[in-house]
């Protein structure tokens, strides 16, 4: 990909996370995740949103507190590469809730496998996951 960019710039450039990026922008978090950090983002790929009716996604986008809770459940402070995740059994998300980390050969977050790991950013790391983490 060339030069390393921030979490938000990287997520936009990859193109696999449009709903997640739109949610972050709606909440004004794009600047936070563009400049602060380091953070580790467990980013749901766009396919995770496909089974959800558009009306349900719209409702979530209208309930900013709920949306913030969901987004913050996908983010932890600090930079955790896959090799680091193999050494822990849980992490605390930004919303204060616990993410369970398991490793059976594949690292899983609350049972969801990482599909694209260790996407380097200037202010953290992105791990792409195939489903949405629900607090």
From TrEMBL:
SMART domains: FAS1. InterPro entries: Adhesion/Biosynth-related, FAS1_dom_sf, FAS1_domain. PROSITE patterns: FAS1. Coiled coil: none annotated. Residues 4-133 form the FAS1 domain. This is Uncaracterized surface protein containing fasciclin (FAS1) repeats. It comes from Methanococcoides vulcani. The lineage of its organism: Archaea, Methanobacteriati, Methanobacteriota, Stenosarchaea group, Methanomicrobia.
